[in-house]
Design brief:
Length: about 350
C-alpha cells in the first residue's frame, strides 16, 4: 500500500507541474510557483502527517470523535460566518489565517468516516432499529452535508453522501431503511439541482455538450478536445495545448484532461491501474483489520479516494455532469493533499496492526 500511495503522489506531482506551469507563469512570471507550493505545504506536511498517523493507534481517533466532530462542524460554519472565510468563484470554502489557507470540508470527509466506523462498531446489535441505530448517523451525515452545501460545494457533498451510504450498506443496515434513506438522499440532491440554475445548466450540458459552448458548456468541450487530441499515446509530457489558457480549472477539476492529452490513452491506463490497485489493497486491509472499527475505517477511506477519483474522471470524460471535484493526489490543493495523506497514515496503521496480529498468531 505504501508503494501505491507514493507512486500516486509522485505521478500526481509530476502531472501537476506540467498542468500548473502556464497559470503559474501568467500570475507569477515563473513556471514553478504552484508546484513549489504543493510540495512545501501539501506534500511535505502531508507526508509528515502520514508518518505520524501511521504510528498512532487508530483506536485513538475513536476516543476523540466528539472533539473531532465539534471542531469540524465549527470550522465548516466559520467559512461562512467568520472574517477568516474566503470566497472564490462564488463559493466560500476556505479559511485564511495569515499565509495559510485551509479547506474544512476535506477534514469533514475524514471525520464522518471515523464517526460512521465508530457507529458501526458500537451499535452492531441495533443496526435494524431506525430510531436508536440509524437516525443518529443520518442526522450527523445531514448536518455535515447541509453545512458543506451552504458554502456551496455540491460536489464535496456528493462524495460525502456516497461514501456514507456505502459504509451504511457495508455495516449491514436493514435493506428497507437503506432503500428509503437512499431514495430521500437522491430526491434531496435532485431538488438542490433544480433550485440552482447553474446546476440545471450543467445537467443540460451533460446531455447536449454543444449547448452554450462559450458559456456553461465551455469547460467540458475544452476537456473533451484535450482528451480526444491525446489519442493513443499523447503529445508528450509537458506538451499539452489546452493548458495554454484554453481549459478552465486546469490544475484542479480538469487536470485529468491535461494528463490524457499529454500521455494518451495507453499511458493513462497505467494511472487508472494504480487507482484500481489502491482500491484492491484498501479492501484487503479492511478485510483483515483486527476489529469492526478498523474494518469500517479502512473501507471508508478506500471508498473516499475511489469515489472521488471516479467522479472526477467520469465528469471530465462526460459520463456524468461536471461536479467540480478534484482528483486525489493529482489536483492542486494543499488541504486536500494533506488530508488525503493523513488518511493514508491511518490506513497504514490499520494494515500494520493487522500484520502484527497475524505474526503473533
Amino acid at each position: 500500500m505504501l508503494f501505491i500511495i507514493m507512486a500516486l503522489l509522485a505521478f500526481g506531482l509530476i502531472a501537476l507541474y506540467s498542468a500548473s506551469s502556464i497559470p503559474s507563469y501568467t500570475k507569477f512570471q515563473n513556471t514553478t510557483y504552484f508546484i513549489y507550493h504543493q510540495l512545501a505545504y501539501g506534500a511535505a506536511i502531508g507526508l509528515l502527517s502520514m508518518y505520524i498517523l501511521s504510528r498512532v493507534d487508530y483506536h485513538f481517533w475513536q476516543k476523540k470523535l466528539p472533539i473531532l466532530i465539534v471542531v469540524s462542524l465549527v470550522l465548516l460554519a466559520m467559512v461562512k460566518i467568520s472574517a477568516f472565510g474566503t470566497t472564490f468563484g462564488g463559493a466560500a470554502r476556505w479559511l485564511d489565517v495569515g499565509p495559510f489557507s485551509f479547506q474544512p470540508s476535506e477534514l469533514a470527509k475524514l471525520v464522518v468516516i471515523l464517526y460512521l466506523a465508530a457507529w458501526a462498531d458500537k451499535k452492531k446489535g441495533a443496526l435494524n432499529d431506525f430510531y436508536f441505530g440509524l437516525l443518529p448517523s443520518l442526522t450527523i451525515i445531514g448536518l455535515f452535508s447541509l453545512l458543506i452545501l451552504w458554502q456551496p460545494d455540491f460536489g464535496t457533498m456528493l462524495v460525502l453522501i456516497s461514501v456514507s451510504f456505502a459504509m451504511l450498506f457495508t455495516a449491514g443496515i436493514n435493506w428497507k431503511y437503506f432503500f428509503w434513506s437512499a431514495a430521500c438522499g437522491i430526491l434531496s440532491m435532485a431538488l438542490f439541482v433544480t433550485f440552482e440554475p447553474y446546476r440545471a445548466q450543467r445537467i443540460k450540458t451533460f446531455f447536449d455538450p454543444g449547448f452554450d459552448p462559450q458559456g456553461v458548456g465551455y469547460q467540458i468541450n475544452q476537456a473533451l478536445m484535450a482528451i480526444g487530441a491525446g489519442g493513443m499515446w499523447g503529445y508528450g509530457y509537458g506538451l499539452s495545448r489546452q493548458k495554454h489558457s484554453y481549459l478552465p480549472e486546469v490544475m484542479t477539476d480538469s487536470i485529468f484532461a491535461v494528463i490524457a492529452e499529454e500521455l494518451g490513452f495507453f499511458r493513462v491506463l497505467g494511472i487508472l491501474l494504480l487507482f484500481m490497485l489502491f482500491v484492491f489493497r484498501g479492501f484487503s486491509i479492511a478485510k483483515n483489520a483486527p476489529d469492526t472499527f478498523g474494518k469500517m475505517v479502512a473501507f471508508g477511506i478506500t471508498m473516499w479516494i475511489a469515489v472521488q477519483a471516479l467522479i472526477n474522471i467520469a465528469a471530465i470524460v462526460n459520463i456524468i455532469p461536471l461536479t467540480g471535484i478534484p482528483l486525489p493526489f493529482f489536483s492542486y490543493g494543499s488541504s486536500a493533499l494533506i488530508l488525503n495523506l493523513a488518511a493514508m497514515g491511518i490506513l497504514l496503521n490499520i494494515s500494520r496492526q493487522a500484520s502484527l496480529r497475524t505474526n503473533k498468531a
